[in-house]
Queue: 4 jobs
Job 1
Amino acid sequence: MTFLGTGGGRHTTMYQIRSTGGFLVEHDGGNLHIDPGPGALTNMHRIHYDLTKTDSVIISHCHPDHYSDAESVIEGITRGGWVKRGHVYGSPTVIEGMGGLGPCISPYHLGIAAGHTVFRPGDTLDVDGLSISIKKAVHSDPTNVGFVIDTPHGKVSYVSDTEYSDEIADQYIGSRVLILPVTTPRGNRIRYHMCTDDAVPFIQRVKPELAIFVHLGVVILRRGVDEEASYVQQETGVRTMAAHDLMVMDVGEEISLTDATTYDDDWIPSTAP
Ligand SMILES: [Zn+2]
Ligand SMILES: [Zn+2]
């Protein structure tokens, strides 16, 4: 799993203080891109990842830090719109639009993919053989959800934007890795998001092997996100870290964390015309 972006919230996103490109999940059945926000395309080029290798895309909700590069990702999946392939998964606002939000994927882009699916909490998706269950969230896009990815080496969960509640946290019990959107630091709770104070009970309830902060807002980045993560580690006894852009996590028997090789050049993928 490659973290194409670790920023979140509108200010980190608009200034691109951290990238907001979501995650690339390379698994036995194919390649999946989750939440391709701004920076996804740029970072895929930087690591020489050919996006025509992507098979499916999941968009959690209709906020630009989660979707803005998605239509280009679909063009990648479909080899520039020439090959009908791949699957687009999204919440109701993403695919259909609802209550003034979205749709954020045009009918044209839904049409060039082989298929699309609207998900809701309680659903289980079969994404190219990878089982992903959809969990409830409490967010300003009311259709947002979180994800539990069932890998051969345990459950890896990506909790997309939500407020904290015990009920929200308990959905992720059994996760080996818990990827948490911690938008703001201690003492800075904002509506519809989590702060460091929320990460503590969340991680205490779930007790994962590893907790990773993502969706970092400007205030937590200014405050020092590594300090916030070590505070949570101290409070919970669970290994906790803040992700950085282009970090690569390999979940096998061990969990290994490395950095993707980056390039700053005019690489032209061999699949480009
Ligand atoms: Zn967000
Ligand atoms: Zn959001």
Job 2
Amino acid sequence: MKAAVFERFGQPSEVLRVAEVPNPTPGPGQVLVRMRYSPINPSDLLTVQGAYGRLPPLPATPGYEGMGIVERSGGGLLGWRVLGRRVAVLNGVGGNWAEKVVIPARQAVPIPDEIPDEQAAAFFVNPATALVLAEKVLRIPRGEWLLQTAAGSALGRMMIRLGKRLGFRTLNVVRRSETAQELFQLGADAVVDTSREVLPQRVGELTNGKGVRFAIDAVGGQTASEVVRCLAPGGRLIVYGTLAMEPMQLDQRLLIAGSKRIEGFWLSDWVRAQGPLTMLRLFGRIFQLMREKILTTEIGEVYALDQVTEAVGKAAEPGRKGKVLLTLGSE
Ligand SMILES: NC(=O)c1ccc[n+]([C@@H]2O[C@H](COP(=O)([O-])OP(=O)(O)OC[C@H]3O[C@@H](n4cnc5c(N)ncnc54)[C@H](OP(=O)(O)O)[C@@H]3O)[C@@H](O)[C@H]2O)c1
């Protein structure tokens, strides 16, 4: 079968190639999935660059999520239950950018019929992170502001729709004016365009000088440093991404006065700490919010596996529209 493979860490468009690799065989408790689609997420690109929180032994195949059809079971009740079904493929170790993949049967999540393949391919990483951050980590009360950076991202757009659904207001930070217009159309309560506006000043105007009690940052660098200046007394900033690949600079007096907090969030860590029931409930809730078109992903260009070099180049392009998908099989 074919898979995207990298033998050394480096720029994805330079180190990834498509190779013939042996077909994987499922063992007990595992299933073999014939893949259909997998998205190109920032975590995939960071892994290939050697800059992610967990790195695979080399050579490796990227791809933490995606969808396909369960073709074989290696034995066990769970595998038998999902045999022949359309599933989301949650793959914590990576490897989904291949025609076939073997995963534990419990990580093959059956997809309701009304969810299209392309949406199912991006079922977990961003939807779960948006929902867990809003409802379980920050527990944002109705009427409160949530400030978010990289608000034009797939996850940021979900958060805007989630805010409308759950009753919190979103204050969205973007770096280009075209994105600002799009986000207002999605229901953003406020948008700050850092190419034209000074973030702490604008947040001061929007909140009558109070600042925000809830903020999430996926950018780092100067943007994150400015977000710290926007926090109200008792405010919390969750850092969950590193898009600028630059560290934030912190005058710690900003945290001391007003007892503010900065915390990290990684979905992998959160998932590891949950029991099966919580996970089942989470899957059900995500599917429900996908049906309501809240946790949906704007899909951009779709590339065949053979075009993986072009696909990762596109995914890394500033101002790209929608999530780039890889299509991994013909049916
Ligand atoms: N911690 C976790 O468990 C977890 C889970 C899921 C996602 N994440 C993180 O969430 C973030 C969003 O993921 P996604 O899949 O939704 O991303 P995405 O759809 O690929 O969008 C990326 C967005 O980031 C913006 N961006 C890129 N570099 C930037 C920079 N230097 N400064 C400001 N904005 C920048 C882009 O803006 P332009 O349109 O202007 O180019 C684009 O809107 C990523 O950092 C990802 O790693 C973390």
Job 3
Amino acid sequence: MRVAIASCLRIPEPDLDEPLLLEALAGAGIDARVLAWDDDAAPFAEHDLVVLRSTWNYYQRVDDFVAWVARTGQATRVLNPPEIVAWNAKKTYLSELPERGIDIVPTEFVLQHAARRPVADIVGERGWDDIVIKPVVSAGSFRTERFSRETLPAAQAFLDALLAERDAMVQRWMPSVDTYGERSLVWVDGVVTHAIRKTPRFAGGNERVSGEVAIAEDERAFAERALLPFAAELLYARVDMVRDAGGTLRIMELELIEPSLFFLQSKPALARFVSALARRAR
Ligand SMILES: Nc1ncnc2c1ncn2[C@@H]1O[C@H](COP(=O)(O)OP(=O)(O)O)[C@@H](O)[C@H]1O
Ligand SMILES: [Mg+2]
């Protein structure tokens, strides 16, 4: 059995999961190697299974990436599955979650080719004070900035610059990222394995995460409910959530493509990942 771990040619930051994963796969007798999705010569099709991992530059060429995943999925097995990757690559997927009773961070999409409302109108109508503006296709806090009612002209200028290149979104800034924290619940092969807490990160900042944190029962249930429609198809997932002022859990991101899985914080999660992967590659 040969497994390809998909990364990219110029990784924006080190993948802390990768050495642990490679070591654990080797320990399980699985022949794995890291290949770059954006290397045209990389022989992904020669492998029995391709596992998407640190393909962290994909947001710069999202259409190419989604097409590459689909193509590779015709030649061999790709996990997570190509159709789910295509759906998850644009944060507009968030707008489908409330229909399923899954609350999201309050969001207004501002799309390049649709009628646009000024930020001041959005903020006024929604009654928001602080906001975050970010791209619809993004990773690693790329071009993600916070503004307030006092900095609306700067917010509008930032949004206009973003829209010249890509679709954008305006969200209510969630104050609990500074207190309770954004929680990432990691899910492997049907089970929530562990959780970490993230420190707020805006453009240019580094990711800082905690050790393993306790998972509240409502957090676990929320993550499971959010993943339910895909659960049978997924190998891994991460559900990033925050609490609003009333304590309601809201999705920040459903990460089904290339989330860090924080294996450093959980050996059992790594073991579960490796055995689930081995089962699927057979
Ligand atoms: N609405 C928001 N309220 C508070 N912080 C936010 C909000 N949106 C984004 N952030 C901060 O920016 C980071 C990156 O945003 P996120 O939506 O997770 O995109 P990505 O991880 O794909 O770059 C979050 O982890 C959080 O620290
Ligand atoms: Mg995120």
Job 4
Amino acid sequence: MKSKLVDIHTHTQFSAFEKDRDAVIRRALEAGIWMINIGTQRDTSANSCELAHKHEGVFATVGLHPIHTEKSFHDEKELGSSFAKASEDKGGFTSRGEDFNYDYYKKLAQDTKVVAIGECGLDYYRLTEDTKKKQAEVFIKQIELAREAGKPLMIHCREAFTDLIQILNSNRQLLTSPPGIIHFFSGTTEDAQKLMALGFSFSFGGVVTFAREYEKLIKFIPPERILLETDAPYVAPLPYRGKRNEPLYVEEVAKKIAKILNKDFEEVARTTTENAIRIFNLK
Ligand SMILES: [Zn+2]
């Protein structure tokens, strides 16, 4: 099976797709769109592996998202209402605040359909000093796991690029080649430059279809470092904005990037797909 586009960061294993998951995946695959379902904690990582084995052209990552390192946040679209209810019953917290169990994730990481470790990284959007310390520790453990598994990193970073670059630099001897992706990249051109010096590439999603501030970045980053994503079920591109996002809509992201770069859709599709296949060793 050949791929026309790859949605390198999506979450069709989340509960937002409980009712029609197979149909959503099939519509994308029939349009030639491959996808990587990104794990965010124990359950969504295990589920992404399971789903990848059901379909050719569907891959998985396993990891612990920085927001799940603390008991603070719960998104019903991610884990479902039964999880919310269960965690409330256990004392009112909305996220379980998972400790990173290296051996659990190591076992999952050995799966042949797992193509990266993450999403992992730093998220300072909801911040306490303890949060920073814990996030850094959990992130470094996942850099070590990526090294041991010989797979690249899928990095999430929000409002924390200075610390992220510092952590990556001081652990650069552990990075794989290529080292991975910064997904939904929202840093500056200077941040991009420093991350490119470490070998990283960048993925962009639906936000580029309605927020103009990404145009400068997309023109600045060389095409062989740009990949496409949806981050579904979140942040649907125009003309679907406000609706549930899905991998099929990655076409709209490709169209917009082609427009920004003044290139044909086919050329953007070809380059970004080659980038995805090379970096994640997709087969
Ligand atoms: Zn994500």
